[in-house]
Amino acid sequence: MVLSKAVPSSSHDASLDCTFASRYVRAPLPRFKLPEESIPKEAAYQVINDELMLDGNPRLNLASFVTTWMEPECDKLIMAALNKNYVDMDEYPITTELQNRCVNMIAHLFNAPIGEEETAVGVGTVGSSEAIMLAGLAFKRKWQNKRKAEGMPYDKPNIVTGANVQVCWEKFARYFEVELKEVKLKEGYYVMDPEKAVAMVDENTICVAAILGSTLTGEFEDVNKLNELLTEKNKETGWDVPIHVDAASGGFIAPFLYKDLVWDFRLPLVKSINVSGHKYGLVYAGVGWVVWRSKEDLPDELVFHINYLGADQPTFTLNFSKGSSQIIAQYYQFIRLGFEGYKNIIENCMENAKVLRQGLEQTGKFNIVSKEVGVPLVAFALKDRTYYTVFDISENLRRFGWIVPAYTMPADAQHIAVLRVVVREDFSRSLAEWLVSDIHKVVQELDEQVKHVTKVVTTQVDITARGGGTDGALVHKSEQEIAEEVITYWKKLVSRKKTSGVC
Amino acid sequence: MVLSKTASESDVSIHSTFASRYVRASLPRFRMPENSIPKEAAYQIINDELMLDGNPRLNLASFVTTWMEPECDKLMMAAVNKNYVDMDEYPVTTELQNRCVNMIAHLFNAPLGESETAVGVGTVGSSEAIMLAGLAFKRKWQNKRKEQGLPYDKPNIVTGANVQVCWEKFARYFEVELKEVKLSEGYYVMDPEKAVQMVDENTICVAAILGSTLNGEFEDVKLLNDLLTKKNAETGWDTPIHVDAASGGFIAPFLYPELEWDFRLPLVKSINVSGHKYGLVYAGIGWCIWRTKEDLPEELIFHINYLGADQPTFTLNFSKGSSQVIAQYYQLIRLGFEGYKNIMENCQENAMVLKEGLEKTGRFNIVSKDNGVPLVAFSLKDNSRHDEFEVSEFLRRFGWIVPAYTMPPDAQNITVLRVVIREDFSRTLAERLVLDIQKVLHELDVMPSKKDIDIQKTKSVAAAWKRFVEDKKKTNGIC
What is the CA radius of gyration of chain B? Predict the structure, then answer.
C-alpha cells in the first residue's frame, strides 16, 4: 500500500516554480555587493532581460553611426565565435588570417601604394579611438626620432586639427601628452579650414589630422587642398609634416559614392588612415581599422613580439584579449556584399536622407545645416529659437520612441544648436516618413503650448493692470515685458545645460 | 504552354551552396570583390574555413573564459547591437556596469560606505585597465612634482620581470621607464625587498601581480606594503601600489579570503581584474577600481555631449559592444559568492588531479605552486634529448593546445609547459590530458633526438667535404 503524503507548504520544491511565481522576482536586485547565494539561471536571465526592456531601442537610436542590424547568417557566425579570444593568433590562425585579409582589402580600397599581392601594413582595433591612438603614437615616435637625430628639442609635440574633431583626438592629446592645436569653426563653416590649419603648423607639429565625415554635420574636409598647401609649406620650411585622415565614418562611403574624390593614399602626404568597421563598415560595435601607407610609417620599436601564449606574435594594439566576432563579421560583410553591395546600401541611405531633409524643409521651421555631399545624415537647426529650442524637440521626440540628439557646435560657433539624425543601413524610407510626421507633431504641440502660456500670462497681466496686486501698489509693466519675463523663466526651466567639448 | 528550362539554366539562386559556383571560386584575400554573393554562401564559406581554427575549449594556453550558460548567450546575442558608450540611450546597461563596479569594489574591500558609489570603470580588458591606472598614477605624480618645483620628465614604474606584456606596452607607449626586478631560478615572482630598493623619487607606483602569468603565483603584496610604507616614511616620497589582479582578483576573495592583498592595505590605490578570466565572461571585459575619488585626477575625465547629454568618461576605447558588461552582471547575480567559490574550488581540485598525474610519470618538475591561480606549470626533468616545445607540438595532434615558453630574465634557461584550468576543464578532461601526455612521452622516447640527427648529419657532411678537399689537394687555411 502506497502512502500518499499531503504536501505541506514548507516542503514545497522551489525549483519547480516558474520564474514569476518564485521568490526571485520579489527580491530587489543586488546593486552594491555580490550576493551571497546563487540563483537559478532562468531567474537570472529573466530579471536582467526584463530590466533591459527599459533601455532605448537600438534601431530607433538615431544618434549613433554604429551599426544596429546584421543578417541572421552573420549573427550565427558571431555567436559561434564568442568564445574565441582574438589575440591567440597561434591557436586561431584562420581568424588571424581573416583580419589580415580585411586589412589588405581596406588598404587597397584606400589606394595604398602596394603591389597586387603585397601585404598591407595595418591592424584591426576595437574602434576608431584605439586606431587613432595607434596612428598618433606612430607619428609622435617618428617625429621624436627625427628631432633627436637633428639634435633638437622633442618635448613639445603638437597636432593640428579642427575644433570639430571627435573626442578621441582630445583623449589622445591629453593622455599621450601632445598639444592639441584646434582650428576654430565659425557660423556656416563647420569643418577645418585647410588654410588656417597649415598656418598653425610649426616645427613641433607631428601631423595634421583631417576628418572625412565630420561628426557634427557629416561633411568631408578638403584633404586634397590640405595636401597641396601643406606640401608647399613643407618645401619652404623643410619640416616634412604628414597628414592623417580620420575617415571613421567617411572611409566606407567615399570609395563607393564619390570615387573621384581624392582624399586617401593617392595624396602623398597621407601616411595613415583610420576607419570604423562598426559605422558604415556595417558591423556591430567593436571593430575599427587603421592602415599605414608603408612599413616606414610605423616605427618598429612600437611593435611588440611576445611568446606568452607559446609562439612569436607581433602586435601593435592597445587592447590585448578581445572577442573575435566582429573581425569575422567584417570579413563576412566584405565578401557577402562586395563593392556593389556596399554601393547599393550607401546609395539607399543617401536617398532616405534626402527624403528626410525634404520633409523637414517642408515644415518651414528648420534650417538644414548638413551638406548633401558627405555622410548620410541630416543636421538641422530651428529658424526661430525664441520660445523653445532643439533640446525641447529632442526631449519630446522620445515619447514617440525616437532618440534624436541635440547638441551645440564647438567654438567658435557654440551659439548654434542642432538636431542630428544619422541615416544607417536599416533606416528605411517608411521610417523616414514616420519621423518627419512625428517631428511635425512635436513642433505643433510646442507651438500650441507657447500660445497657451502667452494667453495665461496675458490674462494675469490684465488682472494685475486692473489693480489686483495684494500690496495695493500698482505695478506698471507693459504686457510685453511681463510676457517676456514669464517665458524666459519657463525657457530656463526646460532647456538643457550644454557642456562644451564635442567628441 | 509553359516552356520548361533545363536544370542547368535554372535560377542560380536556388542552388544549394555546395552546388553553386561560390565554392569553386577562391576567396578574395587582397581586394574587396566586385560583386555580392548570397548570404548563405558567405556564411558557409567562412564557417567552413573557421573549422580549421583550434577548438577554444581545448585551448589550455588561455585564461580567458570559453564557456557560458545558454541563458547568458541569449542575453549577449540580444545586446550585440547595443553600443555601450550611448549611456544616455541605454541607461539600464550603464546602470548594470555601475553595479558591477560597486560589487567588485566591495569584493576588494574598497573603503566605501554601504551605499556609496565606487570609483571604477569597465574596460575591454586588463590592458586598457592597466593603462588607465598607470595614466592616473603618472598624472598624480606629475602634478605633485610640479607643485614641488621638481623635474617630472623621467617617471618610472617598478615591477617584476614576470609582468604581462601590457605593462611593457604601457611603459613604451606612455613614456614611462620600466624598472624590472629580475627573477631567479626557483623564484619566479617579484621580490618585494628588491622592488622597494629600486624605488626612487621618480617612481610613480610599484605594480604587484596577483596571479603571475607564468606560474600562477600570488605575489606578497602585504610584505610589499609594509616595506614600502617604511621607505615612504624615511623618504617622504609617498609611492603607491597598484595590484594587477587580472587573474587573481576573482580567485583570492573566494579561495583565500584571509589573504590581505587588496584595499585593506593602505598603499594600494588601484586594482585591475579581468572579467574575462576568472570573472567567467567571454573575451572583451576588464575592470579597474580606484580606492577613492582622490586617486583618479579629475583632469583625465572627459565630459561629452556628442550623443545628446552629458556623459563623463575615462576609457581609451569609445564605441564597443554591451554584451560582455551584461554577461558580467549575469554571472555576478547568477552565481553569487557561493557560486564563484564552488567553481574556483572545482578548478583547484582538477588542477591537483592534473598535477598528481604528472608527478606520477616521474618525468616532470612542477614549477607552479599549489596556492594561486589554478594552473599547472611543469618542465621536463631531462630535456637533453627532447624539450618542452616538442611535447607541446606533439600534444597538438591529440587536439590539445598546451603552450611551452621560456621564463624571462634571469631564468631564461628554464622552459615550461603550462596548463590553465578553467571553469569548463572537468576532471575527465584532466585525466585524458595526463594519458595523452604519457603517450607523447612514449613516442618521443623512441624518436631520435633532433640534436642526434644534427650531429649525424654534420658528421656525414663533414666527411664528404673532407674527401672533396683532399681530392683537390687544397692548401690548408683556417675557415
Answer: 28
Q: Do B440 and B452 fall into the same domain? A: no
End-to-end alpha-carbon separation of chain B, Å? 91
Contact B37 A67 (CB under 8 A): no
Structure confidence by residue, pLDDT tens digits, B94-113? 999 999 999 999 999 999 88
CB contact at 8 A, B83 and A69: no
**A187 in helix, strand or coil?**
coil
Q: How many CB atoms neighbour CB B182 within 10 A? A: 15
Which cell numbers in the block locate residue B138?
Answer: 603618472
Please report which helix (H) or strand (E) contains residue A138, including its range: helix A128-150
Coil, strand, or helix at residue A125?
Answer: strand
Spatial CA neighbour of A167 closest among A211, A107, A121? A211
Render pLDDT for B425-456 as a digit per residue (tens, 0 to 9).
999 999 999 999 999 999 999 988 877 767 66
Model pLDDT for residues B348-369, shown as the tens digit of each residue: 999 999 999 999 999 999 999 9
**Helices and strands (H, E) in chain B, number of each type:** 12, 13
Number of domains in chain B: 4
Task: Name the residue type at position A40.
Answer: P
Nine-digit cell string for B321: 559592444
Tell me what the mean pLDDT of segment B452-479 comes to: 67
Neighbours of A84 (CB within 10 A): 27
Domain that holds residue B438: 362-444
Q: B394 and B302, same structural domain?
A: no
Looking at residue B384, which CATH number applies to its domain?
3.90.1150.160
Q: In terms of domains, do B437 and B455 share one? A: no
CB contact under 8 A, A321 and B125: yes
- ipTM of predicted complex: 0.87
Answer for the pair A308, B169: CB distance below 8 angstroms, yes or no: no
Three-state SS sequence of B34-61: CCCCCHHHHHHHHHHHHCCCCCHHHECC
State the smallest CA–CA distance between residue B229 and chain A in angstroms.
29
Provide the 10 A C-beta neighbour count for residue A11.
Answer: 7
B340 falls within a domain: no
CA–CA distance from B48 to each of B42, B66, B225 (Å)? 10, 20, 53
Q: Which residue reads 566584405 in cell numbers? A: A334
Place of cell 567553481: B343
Count of CA atoms in the C-beta half-sphere (13 A) of B305? 21
Residue with cell 532647456: A495
CA distance B9 to chain A (A): 23
A residues 66-105 lying closer than 8 A (beta carbon) to B:
66-71, 73-86, 88, 91-95, 98, 101, 104-105
Residues B301 and B412 both lie in one domain: no
Given CA atoms B98, B104, B107, B111 in this order, what sign does their dihedral have? negative
Q: What is the pLDDT at residue B117?
A: 83
For the entire predicted model, the pTM comes to 0.87
Closest to B160 (Cα-Cα) out of B178, B176, B173, B172: B178
Q: For residue A318, give the nearest of A331, A330, A307, A302 by alpha carbon.
A: A302
Task: Specify the 3-state DSSP secondary structure of B458.
Answer: helix
Question: What are the pLDDT digits (tens) for B293-304?
Answer: 999 999 999 876
Spatial CA neighbour of B160 closest among B208, B202, B223: B208
Give residues 430 to 469 of B whose Cβ lies within 8 Å of A: none
Q: How far does A463 lie from chain B, in Å, by closest CA?
A: 41
Looking at the complex, does the CB of residue A394 fall below 8 Å from at least one CB of chain B?
A: yes
Say if residue B241 is in the same domain as residue B290: yes
